[in-house]
Amino acid sequence: MWGLRSSTLANIFLLLSVAMNFSISHASSAKQFQNETGRLALLEFKNQIYDDPFGALNSWNHSQQHCRWEGVTCGARHQRVIALTLRSKQLSGTIAPHVGNLSFMRSIQLGDNQFHGEISQEFGRLFRLRVLNLSSNAISGKIPANLSYCSELVTISLAGNNLEGKIPMDQLSNLKKLENFFLYKNNLTGEIPSSIGNLSSLTQLDFDFNNLEGSLPLEMGLLKRLVQLFLAANKLSGIIPASIFNSSAITVISVGANYFHGNLPINMGLTLPNLEELGVGANKFYGNFPTSITNASGLKVFDLSENNFKGQIPANLGDLTQLKRVNLGFNFFGSNSTGDLDFIASLTNCSNLRILSLSANKFGGNVPKIMANQLTELFVGGNQLSGTIPQGFGNFVNLIQLGLEVNSFSGIVPRDFGKLPNLQGLRLDHNDFSGQLVSTLCNNTNLFYLDLSFNQFEGGNIFDNMKIRLVVLCLLNLESLYIWWISMFPTINLLEIYPSHLLIVQIWRIFLCRPIFSKEQFHQILASWKSIQQLDLSSNNLTGPIPKELEKLQYLRYLNLSYNDIEGEIPKTGIFSNASQISLIGNNKLCGGIPELEFPPCPVIKGKNRGKLKLVAVKVLDLQKNGASKSFKAECKALRNIRHRNLVSIQGTGSTIAIKGSIGYAAPEYGMGLAVSTQGDVYSYGILLLEMITGRRPTDDIFVGDLDLHNYVNGALREQVSEIVDPNMTPGEETINGGREIDCIISLLKVGLKCSARLPNDRMHMNEVVRKLHLIKDVFLGVRVHQENFEA
């Protein structure tokens, strides 16, 4: 009996041992299989990468275990892949769907690379995923709705891509743990649905720079944990729900560049005690200044610009001692009376205040003698300010931009202006300043923009040491200054001196109006401009032959000598070898040149102009405002005053005018026999804008078949915009405005693309173009708050 029992127990122990060994063996095999699945998924990810300039994936090979590969993190216990971190590696390719096989994945951070393609539906299988960061790539398509299956998600960042379509909020609202939701800088459309109120854990919401529209749902007031709300630069409208202004946790509200309207709550400063940034600029808000805002003691950024606010600014605005940037421009603040700017004295308490913009309001009176002298940018242009500029500006040693334009200031320019070592931009135009310009201005060696036009200044040579790049002057009493000063600036990129209504329309251009030079001075000046790209000397009193120095300017791409009294033979080399790059109309004593210019041969000069007049100019006329010019002479005069190039040729035959659009500049509908229209002018403006920024003309050899300048820019805008921008337009290592240049260039390119859309109805209206350009300019000058590089 005992023997039988012993035998039975032995068999049981044997079977148990076999089972345990089998179980251990099976578990080991399963673990090995699962690890192999992770390794293969990573290798598939690598196979989709076709450019790895930093060698980030060099370690991804068979020589070492995949948990040791760069950017790969595995769990300590089970050696499964839990994180993939390859930020800012400049990787190019698509994201393989095999990533969905990494079922233990908790964090994917692939931001700031060059991934393209769509987000795979396989991401929805990563039910343990907590962080998904694919920002700053070129990913397209729609946001996968099945991300809602990733119920552990805390952060979704898909910003800075080319995503389109609606936000699948009804599905994503199931993500109860989601705290950070970043979708800014995409092409998303549609409304923000009410289901967003279900994201109860949300603390940061950033949908800036999309095409979202409609009103904000009342349910947004349910987001009680919301700290930062960014909705700027969309097409949102309606009234902002009052419940948002009652969320005491909020520190940032940025809704600029939309179509919101209504009053701001009178008690918002009390209901938002933690508010640090309020940006509602470029909307349609109205009403009085929200005086209770002075209770939000932590406020740092305050932007009410470009709305319809009115009334006085409270004298205790300086109670907001943490202020850094204040923009109240383009409203109706003030009453055109003395004391409107008394509140500025209180801002001396704001030791962190750097930017103050009060432009284009109804402020009257004088500039206070006591101001916050730590400012870097001060704008008070476009008001009704008067009197003299008080002494003491020399204490503003940090000042970079100063705008006093379009007021009624009088007297002389204070000597203190010469004590501003960091000053880069100074606008004094459209005032009543008088007397001689003080010689101390030459101490401002960093000044690159100066506008003194429409004042009563007298001459003097004051600019010997300045490194000016862009200057706008009005020659009333400054002819002697003009003669000396021009020749001493090898660094000038743009100079416009005018006694009329002409506008700056292009950079890298020298435009002179009514200069008085000796022959020797003029030739010396031309020889010194070795890097000049565009030169407009039209409508002056130039006489004699064409200077030979012009043939030697190897970078010159456009030359306009129209409407002078030049005589003699036209050269045939250099810039003169291309008829589309020069304009000589209105110089009846010229002869010779290449045949395309159609001037009579030398030395015989017969009669007046030939039958065809090649007008090398751009027609950019605001026909909606001023009407079309019907007579040939009026049209010629309009074209001459605008001073652009090579858009239309006008053929004069009696009383008829035939427009022959130059290739690439004329609107496509002109080729179908349609009449000249405002939309056609908008198209031409867009092409010119793209040419300015890219440095490529629409007739360049690279544009063949379906590839034109518009498509060239549009395609590159989705990949690397830096590859298409003219190197002269891009900033160097040192920037003057906090690195905002690239964003502004991209915004300008988008304006050019929308203006040059193939279908007329798809093009922007000129009033919208002007609005966009004003916004872009404000971003470049730094008057805008958070991310307000308002793209078209």
From TrEMBL:
One of its GO terms (biological process) is response to other organism. Its main location: membrane. The keyword S-adenosyl-L-methionine does not apply. Residues 1-30 form the signal peptide. SMART domains: LRR_TYP. Residues 39-74 form the Leucine-rich repeat-containing N-terminal plant-type domain. InterPro entries: Kinase-like_dom_sf, Leu-rich_rpt, Leu-rich_rpt_typical-subtyp, LRR_dom_sf, LRR_N_plant-typ, Plant_receptor-like_S/T_kinase. It is a single-pass membrane protein. The keyword Metal-binding does not apply. One of its GO terms (cellular component) is membrane. It is found in: Membrane. Keywords: Leucine-rich repeat, Membrane, Repeat, Signal, Transmembrane, Transmembrane helix. This is Leucine-rich repeat-containing N-terminal plant-type domain-containing protein. It comes from Coffea canephora (Robusta coffee).
